[in-house]
Amino acid sequence: MLIINYMSSLLPEVRRIISDIKALKIQGATRIAGSGVRCIEVTARKSKAKSRVVFIAELHNLNEKLAGARPTEPALRNAIKSIFLRVQIYEDFDTIKRYTVQVCRNYIKELRSMINKIADIGSNQINDGEKILTHCHSEHVIAILRVAKKQGKGFEVYVTETRPRYQGIITAKKLLSSGIKVTYCIDAAVGYIMRDITKVMVGCDAILADGSIVNKVGTFPIAVVANKFGIPVVVAGGTYKFDAQTILGQPEPIEHREPSEVIGPRVIPKATVINPAFDVTPAEYVHSLVTEKGITKPEWVRELAEI
Q1: What strand order describes the sheet that includes 288-291?
Q2: Catalytic residue flag (residue 204)
Q3: Which residue is catalytic, options 104, 136, 204, 243?
Q4: Is the pLDDT of residue 49 over 50?
Q5: Catalytic pick among 104, 204, 205, 243
Q6: Structurally, how many domains does the chain consist of?
């Protein structure tokens, strides 16, 4: 009973991070994964557990709460799994605590390194004079475009508002701060502007076994329209976003958020309001996937993830 009570209490900093992940104050698969790893690192460093059994139980409790913060985030689940596999090999209590802290810090460095690699590789896909459409907010896409800008390429980025939480504003501000020309538009204008677009570039939250891409809701219809106009859809995402569970036929859970994010409950009280956070874009609509290991077809990422 004492162990259960002890496990149920999280450090204030950890509670805040989990709350920020749920509230979308922390968003983007890479930032969410990094923040989750930070929670593990802080917990390990400040743990008052007196035995290995209690320490491992404490981490298990934390990891369950992290995994439940955003269901559609295999990058977070993969990060947790990777750290657990590495640290549980140690039997000595003092060693496992120190090693957990170090593994977490190394993992965060690895995430940063992956972003830099994807930015360098992806920037070669940007040509001078392009008009690029992006949707939502992706650290990978922003990093790619910033590197392309530093290479002296001139291009314009069309940014969708990305309702209902308007993540497009974050993207627009970050690109503008880097001197990149931005045109901001409502989501529904995609069909209108697509004839002027030369490339669609988006991030992703999950890569499934069949090559399907899970990203912010609205990505699928953008890909359909782009394909209709013969415009390539390029997705940027590390192999750590590959969801191995889908190999066994387990579907990727799609998070549904509060209807109040879409519209006030008193506006149309008798209507059912849905608010899916993500949709699934089949591999056939994706021209290429930019990973830290190179450019590939999304249906081939399984092999890259296993290397």
Answers
A1: 181-185, 156-160, 131-134, 199-202, 233-236, 288-291, 294-296
A2: no
A3: 136
A4: yes
A5: 205
A6: 2
